[in-house]
């Protein structure tokens, strides 16, 4: 009777190689999915900004060309007691206060927009709401340029780092970094985006 062929199993090294290849492929897929989801949320933010800008412009048209006079960062669409951007740090620590909603501002906008949009990622600590501000915003550092007027302040999810440029803001918004954030944030090394209402 001929000898039977002994079946050979996988060695430990072969198993480790296969497991590491699977782990590498899984991490690539996960990274691609995360980036695609962030890009999708950024696209939604651009649509939201378009709707908000149109609502503010309609408000101004009905009110002698004037935008709402609110000289502190205000969370759009939130009730007066709710705060947003609570993950914001001012020079390593939290500011004295965080932006809150404004019932009067919300009711002023409701005739011009069916519902005030909320950021698609409400769980993130910074950028989890669109902000409205009327006043002066300095950008490109404390002694850099500044703009005065009415603004929607926002933050995109992809490419937003302290060294980001205007292209990271998309939607034609300008990028602000350095001592740029208006009250109540104060001087900070924050990266944010803003678009000025015309």
Instruction: Give the ordered list of helices and strands.
Output: HEEHEEHEE
- Number of DSSP helical runs: 3
Helicity range: 25-40%
Q: Which of globular, elongated, flat, extended, rod-shaped describes the shape?
A: elongated
Q: Proportion of β residues? A: 5-15%
Number of strands: 6
Give the averaged pLDDT, no decimals.
77
Regions with little confidence, pLDDT below 50 for 5+ residues: 177-181
Biggest sheet: strand arrangement: 2-1-3-4-6-5
Write down the Rg.
Answer: 24 Å
Classify the secondary structure makeup into a structural class: alpha+beta
Main sheet attributes: strand count, strand direction, barrel closure: 6 strands, mixed
| C-alpha end-to-end distance | 94 Å
């Amino acid at each position: 009777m001929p000898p039977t062929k002994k079946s050979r199993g996988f060695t430990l090294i072969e198993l480790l190689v296969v497991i590491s290849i699977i782990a590498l492929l899984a991490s690539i897929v996960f990274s691609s999915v995360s980036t695609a989801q962030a890009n999708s949320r950024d696209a939604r933010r651009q649509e939201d900004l378009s709707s908000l800008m149109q609502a503010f412009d309609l408000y101004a048209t009905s009110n002698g060309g004037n935008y709402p006079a609110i000289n502190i960062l205000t969370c759009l669409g939130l009730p007066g007691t709710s705060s947003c951007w609570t993950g914001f740090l001012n020079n390593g620590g939290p500011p004295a206060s965080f932006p809150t909603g404004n019932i009067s501002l919300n009711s002023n906008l409701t005739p011009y927009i069916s519902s005030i949009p909320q950021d698609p990622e409400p769980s993130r600590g910074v950028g989890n709401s669109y902000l409205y501000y009327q006043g002066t915003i300095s950008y490109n550092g404390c002694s850099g340029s500044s703009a005065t007027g009415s603004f929607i302040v926002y933050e995109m999810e992809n490419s937003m780092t302290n060294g980001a440029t205007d292209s990271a803001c998309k939607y034609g918004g300008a990028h602000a970094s350095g001592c740029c954030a208006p009250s109540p944030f104060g001087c900070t090394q924050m990266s944010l985006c803003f678009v000025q209402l015309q």
